Amino acid sequence: MPRGTKHSKKKSVIPPLESETPAEDHHKFRGGFKMIHDGWMGTTLRVNLSERRTDREPLSQELMFGFIGGRGMNSKILYDETGPQTDPLGPENHLIIGTGPVNGTPMPTSNRFTVTAKSPLTGILGDANSGGFFGPELKYAGYDAIVMQGAAEKPVYLWIDDDHVEIRDATHLWGKSTTETERMLKGEIGDERIRILSIGQAGENLVKIAGIINDEEHAAARCGLGAVMGSKKLKAVAVRGSQTVRVANPEKLFGLMDEMFRDYKKSSAFDWYTHYGGTVAIIDMCKAGSAPVKNYLKSGGTDLDRRLAISHEKIFETYKLKDVACHACPLACDKWTYIEGLGRAKHPDGGSFHSAIWEIYDYPFLVEFNRLCDEYGIDVYSAQMAIAAAMEWYEKGIVTKDDTDGLEIHFGDKNVVRTLVHKIANREGFGNILAEGSVRAGRLVGADPDTTSTGGYGKDMDHGPIDCSAMADLTLSLSVSTRGAGHLRAVAPMSWGVSDTLPSKWQRVYRDAGAEDTMDKPWRGHPIKAEIATYFENICTSSDILEMCKNTTEFFYFYGYEGREKRDDLSWHAEFLRAVTGMDIDRSGLEMVTKRVLNIEKAYNVREGKLREHDMPTSRLFRKREGGPLDGKGLDRDEIERLFEHYYEIHGWDPSTSIPRRHTLEELGLTYVADELESLLGLKL
Amino acid sequence: MYNEGIPICWAMSRAEVCMEYRRIYVKSPDSCTGCRMCEMVCSLMHEKRGVNPRMSRIRVDFYPEKGIITPKVCRLCATPACIEACPEMALSRDETSGVILLDADRCTGCGACQEACPFDAIFMHPETKKVISCDLCEGDPRCVRYCMNNTLLYLDAKGYKALKEKERHSSLRK
Asked: What is the domain extent for residue A235?
């Protein structure tokens, strides 16, 4: 919106939500006057695949100023337009692709987009975000979000070329891998520079751990959203844009960028992180004990000697790698790797590097597995966990050769992993069971919940390969995630050991809380850990709302260095928002928005019947460690219960049920949510 | 001919060193990560309030199979092919800085200059349908300033030569 209008003059940083009606409803969009905003493009694209209709509607002020963008906007739309009666794989489910106001500007790492839908894997809120170039391109085409509903009769793809939006036949693309789809579409449209998001065979076959792949190697993978796209018979979305993302105050933006670049370079992490990328965390995690081994049957960190053979240093010495960046990213943690026989491939970084969960230590195989998952469009984490669980079931005799189509599923067998990925993607034989995700598959084969050990077990989601046993804050952060379970929502970097020493800022926090003795004891559940988790939860939520990458925030390696305390990430984000959109928001205003988003997501899950007991991890996480860096240590159940209670208390949620309290929702302008929950649950909040 | 039998890229790199006006250099084909920050700051700089890489005067090209990502930069050639190719005589050169100047009224957006440019470094504005080319941002090119890993260098021909010689020496010493 132009500066100097009603909103930017207001003193309060929190815009009213419910009283205000959208001011620009009367604006015509096609061939008429379009309101020009700074930051936002001001338009949502509505696609009804059943009726093959596309409409453009103005982005309401409520979404803009109350939820800002990306994950926030998506969650609000999902809460309002779907509910407990929605079948995740039915035409009534919504698939929302959202970008943030700073997407497409030169703001460092502003390249992500969030895909949100009711998840077929968990049955609750599902979202996943991805980097690359798709998000900014969507903005350049003139849209802040695409909301898709209905289902096509036969395969289609969506072609967006600025104002020209077309639902096209995709029968010839059905059954093709994601890279093949992208190649064919680029040829068909005749432009190499268009950006494409697509599903592979897994999404088509409604595999519940299917993801969405964009720009060949970036994935919005979690929560099985590829299956939602498959259920709508939507193979791909292709975008080209030639409009501009407007910036309210370019001089200020340039100034902030100068400052932020200087700030990055102050961090000791900058040099080696830009070189090694996310892979650098693997050995650190191993040393801290959070790297998983053999489906958590062995304690994390007991395999350091085997991991050192494929450490980041070894890999960078042995193989040819090329640094690649997402849109506007100064870090370039993405790499292309060149391996004989495989050609160019994406270098698997971070979590997808934990093949130790199958007891396999082989870099070329990891690259191959990663690529296989990308081609089929499968979530790498969920595939890792499902296959690892299957290995344990086979070893324990819960499944036998008769169940697995004659396949002997042993730990350490690469061929088994390959075969299972193919089977999962095509829902063949035993793969049909694993395609339900590890938790549901475990129930189907009658396995002990422990074998699919995960935080937030009751939400049917596996949290990816991180060993949280004997790690209190990690257990909490992964379990309370509003999208089931996940490490990208509230994890403090020190809790999973991405650094040897605790930065002085955090040492002070511990000391002030009188918790020095728990500082270097990850298994202890002091309440301060819930507060630290909440601090990082705000950073993660804010990053998701603005659609920028978490890797340059305190969430990962960029924390704790000199000068960082002066301006934390939320202050950075608010400054950038002000420069780009001209809206009047400061740190506390942005924090309020993150809370609003978190509460509406929590309310969504409560409405689906997910309460405190569903947040709890399986009992394997409470087992005592044997060997490794945390030998003999384990979580204390009472302490963990209290930690969870404290976390809910901080959020203004009822500690015994985790349902948000009425006054919490009212303060955030979500009275209608409180009313709905009260009438639905039949209790007084 | 002196370059007979020499691959064309060689001949080009030789020609590049001879370009007296050229100011923006690319360090090496390995160093660019393809973040396209240069494209965005360029478009923000020239469009004043808006960003779209398609409106920038520098473009990043990807050759994944070869492991090369490289920005295409205007070389400010001594005898610019774009000027010669323009049928409307809309292009000219600034004698002091060597930047290509456009007479917007004359430009019809025919694209002849784009076809003529051996470096693919002159572009069409998607909205105005007129040609855009590098103007060195009045001596402070934004693309160079915000190139995070210093792939883009702001140097004159002499400085570039000195840099390359220094690199050669240090690699010989190794």
From this structure: 6-240
